[in-house]
Design goal:
- The structure is a single chain.
- The chain has helices at 10-25, 35-39, 61-75, 81-88.
- With 101 residues, it is mainly α.
- It has a domain at 50-88.
- The chain is elongated and about 75 Å long.
């Protein structure tokens, strides 16, 4: 009493999946074939200022702005915070900043 549907076995599924995977990566260059990718490195900028928090743990906005300006200037190898921010984002962009306190 067959339903007329073709059933794929687990073995067939694994065989086809393996062939597809092997076939999809054959002929692709190896990682060392992309020298530009090897040269890219992440950058971390560390900025500290004891004045950023007052004795009650509230943020001093001026100290925080100075820290952000120093960080982005260092990150972008710029001489001026305005030029550094301009390289990094457009006025209409939304920027998120991750901090570790």
């Amino acid at each position: 009493m067959g339903t007329g549907r073709k059933v794929i076995t687990r073995r067939d599924f694994l065989r086809v999946g393996t062939c597809f995977t092997v076939g999809s990566v054959m002929g692709l260059p190896h990682a060392e074939g992309f020298p530009a990718d090897r040269e890219k490195r992440s950058r971390v900028v560390l900025v500290r200022d004891k004045r950023v928090l007052d004795e009650k743990g509230r943020i001093d906005r001026i100290a925080m702005q100075n820290m952000l300006d120093r960080a982005v200037t260092a990150l972008m190898d710029a001489t001026d915070p305005y030029l550094a921010w301009k390289q990094l984002a457009k006025p209409e962009d939304v920027v998120g900043v991750k901090t570790n306190i």
